[in-house]
Design goal:
Layout (H helix, E strand, L loop, with lengths): L1 H15 L13 H12 L38 H4 L1 H24 L9 H4 L2 E2 H12 L2 H32 L10 H50 L1 H21 L9 E2 L1 H27 L20 E7 L5 H4 L4 H17 L3 E8 L7 H10 L6 H8 L6 H8 L3 E6 L8 H4 L4 E4 L17 H13 L7 E7 L24 H6 L4 H4 L3 H26 L4 E7 L5 H4 L6 E8 L2 H5 L7 E2 L9 E3 L3 H8 L50
Parallel strand pairs: 1-2, 3-7, 3-8, 4-11, 5-6, 5-7
Antiparallel strand pairs: 4-9, 4-10, 8-9
Helix pairs in contact: 2-4, 4-8, 6-9, 7-8, 12-20, 13-14, 17-20
Length: 668
C-alpha cells in the first residue's frame, strides 16, 4: 500500500514538472487530446483576463501544481481520442488549418470571376487583423458570441460575393441589395424553362443547402480560431500589433502584389459599397419621380401626334442581345456584317432605304424588359424598382401615342411571354399575342419558345395580312438570339412555316448547348449566327410582305452576356429605320445616321431614353426641323442624384473596392 501510494504521488509530480513533460495518464500525447476534447465540448479554457487557465500573468505558461490551471481540470479524453491520441492531435491541427484557410479565402475572395487568380489570395487581409484586435479587447463573456456573429456575417458576405460573380457574368454589375431581389424570380423562371420544373426545384434546393452550409462552416471556423487566439492572448497581441504595422505600411505605400495591393480590404470595401448602394437605392425612388413628372408630349392633341406616319404600318422590332460587339468585335463581326450588307442590297432591290445609328442601353447581358420600357417611355429604366413604378403609372409611351391618335390599331407579338403579361395594358396595346396565342406547334429552341421567322409569319397571318384593316403599329420581340444560342432554327420558305411542326426536324439537326458552352469561341460563333438569323428574318419579311406603307424600326435591346463580349464592354446597340417611302426617310435626314443596316463607327450615339422624343419630334408637325444633339456621345444625366454615366457605356462608376477597382482606389 505505501508503495502504491508512493507510485501515485510520483506520477502526479512528474505530470506537474515542466522538464518531465508528463501528463496525468503518463503520456505526453494525451494532454493535447484532452485539450481537444475540451475544445470540442466548448469548455472555456481561458481566465477572465483572456489567457489559458493556469498560465501565469508573465505568459510563461507553467501551471501551478494541482491548481485549477492543471490539466486535471480538462475533461478526460474520451472515445477515439483516448484510443488514438496521435490521430486526435493531427485532426485537431488539421481542422485548425482548414478553418484558417476558409476564413482567409472568404476574406480575400473577389466578387468577379475574372479576378480569381492566385495573386488575389496572396495578400494580407486587414479585416482579419482588426477582427483579432476586436476580440482581444472584448469582455470575456462576449468573446464567444462575438466570434459566432463575426463568422456568420463573413459567411453572408461570402454568399454576396458569389451572387456578385453571377451578376457580373450576366449583367456586368454587382447585385443590388435594394432593387434586385425580384430578379431571382426571373432566374428561377429561366432555369425552369431551360431544365424543366423538376430540375429547377433540385437546383434551388441545392443552392439553399450550400448557402446554409457555408454560413455554418464560416461561423464554426471563426469560433475555432478565436479560441486559439484567446488561449494564446499574449502572443496574439504581439502578432496583431506587428501585422497591423506591416499592413498599414504596405497600404500607405500601395505596395503591389500580382496586379493588386498586398494590403487587402476587399470585404470591408464590399460592405462600404453596399451601404452606399442601399442609400442610393432608397433615394432613387424620389429621383425617378422627379424625372417622370416632366413629359412634354403628354398634353399633345391627337391631331398633332405622328403626323408624318399617318397611314403607315409601323413595326418596332427588338432583336434580343443584338449589341455593338456583333458588328465590331472581330470574333463575331465578319458573318454579321456580311448579313447586314446582304440585307441592305436585298432591301434596295425591293425599293427600301435604310439608315442606322447607335443607342446606349440602360442594361447589358439581361433585363430586356427594362430596355423596352426605356425606349418606349423616354425614361431611364435601369432597375426593377423603376420598372415597376413606371408600369403602374400612366406614362405617355410611344405606343400610347399611336393609340391616342385613333388612326392605328396597336398590337404586340411577344413570343417570350408564356403567361399573363399585365404590362401590355400599360403600353397601350389593343392586343398582345404571347407564345400561347400564335398557334405554334413546334418545339422550343432552348430558352426561345418560338423561332423568329414563325413570329413574323404569325404577325402576317394574325394582323398584317387581314383585309380592310386600320394601319398597324406593332411591337415585336424577336427571341431567337436569346442565350444559350443553341440549338438554332434556320431560314425556310415562308410557305413552309405552317404551324411550326417543321421545326421539330430542324431542332434535331441543331447543336447541343452543353457542347457549345464548353468553348467560349463556339459561344461567340453561335451568338453571331443567331443575330444573322434574326436580321435575315426581318429583311426577308420585308422583301416578301413589305409595301410602300411599311416602316420598320429595328434595334437591339442590350449587349449579350460578358461570356461573349467580356466585362466592361460598351452598352451600345444598333438601331435602323427602314422604309420604301422617301418622305419617311427625309424626316430623319438631320440625324446623320449611316446609310444601310450597319451603323458607322462615327455614327451618333444617343441614350436610349432620348429616342422617344427625337422620334416623335421628327414625325410630328414640324417634320424633323428640330436639330438633334449629334455629338456622337451619350448624354449625361443631370445632378439630381442619379449616378453619372461614363462615356458610351451607360454604366455607373463603382465605388472603391466594390469589386470593380483595386485596393488603391485607382480604377483598373
Amino acid at each position: 500500500m505505501p508503495l502504491f501510494t508512493s507510485s501515485r504521488q510520483l506520477q502526479k509530480k512528474e505530470k506537474a514538472t515542466p522538464e518531465g513533460g508528463r501528463t496525468t495518464e503518463g503520456s505526453p500525447e494525451t494532454a493535447p487530446a484532452a485539450a481537444d476534447a475540451a475544445d470540442e465540448a466548448g469548455t472555456d479554457t481561458t481566465t477572465g483576463e483572456g489567457r489559458p487557465r493556469g498560465e501565469r500573468a508573465d505568459g510563461t505558461g507553467t501551471p501551478a501544481d494541482g491548481g485549477p490551471g492543471s490539466t486535471d481540470d480538462a475533461p478526460a479524453a474520451r472515445g477515439w481520442r483516448a484510443k488514438y491520441p496521435a490521430a486526435a492531435l493531427y485532426v485537431k491541427h488539421g481542422t485548425t488549418v482548414l478553418a484558417a484557410a476558409l476564413v482567409l479565402a472568404a476574406l480575400l475572395l473577389p466578387n468577379e470571376i475574372n479576378r480569381l487568380t492566385l495573386g488575389a489570395f496572396l495578400r494580407i487581409p486587414g479585416e482579419a487583423i482588426f477582427g483579432v484586435a476586436f476580440l482581444l479587447i472584448l469582455p470575456p463573456k462576449a468573446k464567444r458570441a462575438a466570434a459566432t456573429v463575426m463568422g456568420a456575417v463573413l459567411g453572408l458576405l461570402t454568399v454576396l460575393k458569389f451572387i456578385d460573380m453571377g451578376f457580373y457574368q450576366f449583367l456586368d454589375r454587382p447585385f443590388d441589395l435594394v432593387l434586385d431581389w425580384v430578379l431571382f424570380d426571373d432566374a428561377e423562371a429561366f432555369l425552369e424553362d431551360s431544365v424543366g420544373k423538376a430540375g429547377a426545384v433540385v437546383a434551388v434546393i441545392g443552392v439553399v443547402v450550400l448557402v446554409v452550409l457555408l454560413l455554418v462552416l464560416t461561423a464554426l471556423a471563426v469560433r475555432r480560431l478565436s479560441r486559439i487566439v484567446l488561449m494564446h492572448s499574449q502572443v496574439a497581441m504581439r502578432t496583431t500589433l506587428t501585422l497591423g504595422t506591416v499592413w498599414f505600411t504596405l497600404a500607405a505605400l500601395a505596395v503591389p502584389g500580382d496586379g493588386v495591393p498586398v494590403a487587402a480590404k476587399i470585404t470591408a470595401g464590399l460592405v462600404n459599397n453596399r451601404v452606399e448602394q442601399v442609400g442610393d437605392g432608397l433615394k432613387d425612388e424620389r429621383v425617378f419621380a422627379k424625372e417622370a413628372a416632366h413629359d412634354k408630349f403628354e398634353g399633345t392633341p391627337p391631331d398633332r401626334l405622328l403626323t408624318g406616319l399617318r397611314g403607315k404600318d409601323v413595326i418596332f422590332a427588338f432583336v434580343e442581345s443584338y449589341g455593338r460587339d456583333a458588328i465590331e468585335n472581330p470574333e463575331m463581326s465578319s458573318g454579321v456584317n456580311r448579313a447586314l450588307a446582304d440585307g441592305k442590297e436585298r432591301l434596295e432591290g425591293a425599293g427600301f432605304s435604310s439608315r442606322s445609328g447607335w443607342l446606349t442601353s440602360p442594361v447589358t447581358g439581361s433585363g430586356s424588359w427594362m430596355a423596352h420600357a426605356t425606349f418606349m417611355s423616354g425614361l431611364w429604366i435601369d432597375n426593377q424598382q423603376r420598372y415597376r413604378t413606371l408600369t403602374s403609372s400612366d406614362r405617355f409611351t410611344l405606343t400610347r401615342a399611336f393609340r391616342r391618335t385613333g388612326d392605328w390599331r396597336t398590337a404586340g407579338m411577344m413570343p417570350g411571354v408564356t403567361k399573363a403579361w399585365p404590362e401590355g395594358k400599360f403600353y397601350g396595346l389593343d392586343h398582345v399575342y404571347d407564345s400561347r396565342e400564335m398557334g405554334y406547334k413546334g418545339p422550343k429552341f432552348s430558352w426561345s419558345p418560338v423561332p423568329d421567322q414563325y413570329t413574323m409569319s404569325a404577325y402576317e397571318r394574325l394582323e398584317s395580312g387581314k383585309k380592310d384593316r386600320k394601319p398597324l403599329m406593332t411591337e415585336i420581340i424577336l427571341a431567337t438570339s436569346h442565350n444559350p444560342w443553341a440549338p438554332l432554327p434556320k431560314m425556310i420558305g415562308w410557305d413552309e412555316v405552317g404551324d411550326g411542326s417543321v421545326y421539330h426536324r430542324i431542332k434535331k439537326e441543331g447543336k447541343d448547348p452543353k457542347d457549345v458552352w464548353r468553348d467560349e469561341r463556339k459561344v461567340r460563333q453561335e451568338y453571331a449566327r443567331s443575330v444573322q438569323y434574326s436580321m435575315h428574318t426581318l429583311t426577308s419579311y420585308l422583301e416578301k410582305y413589305g409595301d410602300d406603307d411599311t416602316v420598320l424600326v429595328v434595334l437591339g435591346d442590350h449587349q449579350p452576356v460578358p461570356t461573349v463580349v467580356g466585362n466592361h464592354a460598351s452598352r451600345d446597340v444598333p438601331i435602323s429605320i427602314v422604309a420604301r417611302d422617301e418622305k419617311v426617310m427625309d424626316r430623319i435626314s438631320d440625324w446623320d445616321w449611316a446609310d444601310g443596316l450597319k451603323p458607322g463607327k462615327e455614327s451618333p450615339v444617343w441614350r436610349m431614353d432620348k429616342f422617344r422624343d427625337r422620334f416623335m419630334t421628327a414625325y410630328g408637325p414640324d417634320g424633323g426641323s428640330r436639330k438633334a444633339d449629334d455629338s456622337g456621345k451619350p448624354e449625361q444625366p443631370d445632378d439630381s442624384g442619379k449616378a453619372k454615366q461614363p462615356e458610351d457605356s451607360g454604366k455607373a462608376e463603382q465605388p472603391e473596392d466594390s469589386g470593380k477597382s483595386d485596393d488603391s482606389g485607382k480604377k483598373e
